[in-house]
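Long-time lurker. I teach an intro course on protein structure, and each term I like to show students one example going from raw sequence to a predicted 3D structure in token notation. This year I'd like something fresh instead of my usual example. Would anyone be willing to generate the tokens for the chain below so I can use it in lecture? Attribution to the forum is fine with me.
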Amino acid sequence: MTRHDPAATSTSLPTASTGTDAPLPSPAAEAGDGVSRRDFVRTAVVGTGFAAAVLPVTAQTLVHTDAAGLEAGEVTIPVGDFKLPAYRAAPQGPGPHPVVLVISEIFGVHEHIADVARRFARQGYLAIAPQLFVRQGDAARYTDIGQLMAEVIGKVPDAQVMGDLDATLAWAAQHGGDTGRTGITGFCWGGRITWLYAAHQPKVKAGVAWYGRLQGNASPLTPQHPIDLVATLGAPVLGLYGGADAGIPVASVDAMKAALAGGSAAAKASQFVVYPDAPHAFHADYRPSYRKEPAEDGWKRCLAWFADKGVR
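-- Reply from a regular --
Happy to contribute to a lecture. Here you go:
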């Protein structure tokens, strides 16, 4: 397998209806340096388009990994009587393939998250990105982040998320995944979930958390945060954080490091990389926060971490 090289990928953009590689008609010309709301608010198919709250998209840095040679697209995961939508990308063929759960930011499973799944699939993984707050609402339709947090994200129980991820892992085991080689990675909201799931699910062998919140106040829906779970962390986590992140200060990372040093064996094996000048969401190539060097270095470290911990 070869490492995904963002500089070598096509910058063609997916169609709304199929997720294939046909380009959309000149979106950047309409939006200047960005991509317009008209062209990119797409919610009918998981893994297409972008949330309204992050538009216009920064088209000049947008990475697109095509699906040629992959099995990629929307799938449905049964969770009791509920049908959970998810985006799946995997090499063609029966496998079994190592599994990576890809956990989105608050904006849901949009084109960037689907692209990350395809990047993992090109490395030989079955990558699955479940739409974890679809019961609470459609994150893609919100134009205001505060309203999105209050009306959707703030109503998502951690227990629901853990159960949905357990169901996703069970689905993977029946669809070409080797769940004995399971990793999890997530961004922002999904970074926090990465830490939580590494303490919840014994099948997880390693996690990579991209700038996920580490501390917080307990509530009925979010009773514990990563710093509260170091004693029960069952898999080592690599934390990739920005030194210029206004929402997650370096002091929070330092507090987590100190807590990990007194935690489980997996906690003690966990590591952090802090990119001094990187802001929050430095991996999000569709947003102005994107920083190419930390994003590419973090991706290399993510793949190496999974390989070193047996998720390959």
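Some talking points for your students: The CA atoms of residues 206 and 274 lie 19 Å apart. The chain has a mean pLDDT of 88.
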